[in-house]
Amino acid sequence: MSSRSSIGYPLAMSPAREIRLDSAAFLDSAECRALELGEGARTIVERYLACCYDELGKAPHLLEGEDMIELLEERLPAHFGKKDPLAEHAEAVLGAWLAFDNQRSVVLHLYEISRALLEHADDFRRVVESGALAGR
What we know:
The protein is 62% helix and 0% strand. It is mainly α. The protein has helices at residues 15-27, 30-33, 39-56, 65-75, 87-104, 110-130. Mean pLDDT is 90; it is low at 1-11. The longest helix is centred in the C-terminal third of the chain and has 21 residues, at 110-130.
């Protein structure tokens, strides 16, 4: 199978492949290892990346502050069950992801994304705790 279109341009990778590659790179990073969460970190970052690529249609380094707020309050909680214990670690994992992503990409809106994470992480935990969006 060719990695080029019929007119010679490179084909874009599928979101599923991007998610696998990005999560694998993150799991091998010092930022992720410092968390000592193992499979929990994998689960959280894969859910986050799925929201970015599949639901927002953006690579994580292209997000803006408003995108992070939407992810935390409306999209990401739907990937967690009611009172999911992993939700307590999401802020730390996403913070580590931002540090990792900033090392390998130009994250244009890093300040806004980081602020949104800090200011809306509690909202995310409350929505997961309530189960209002679980499984949507």
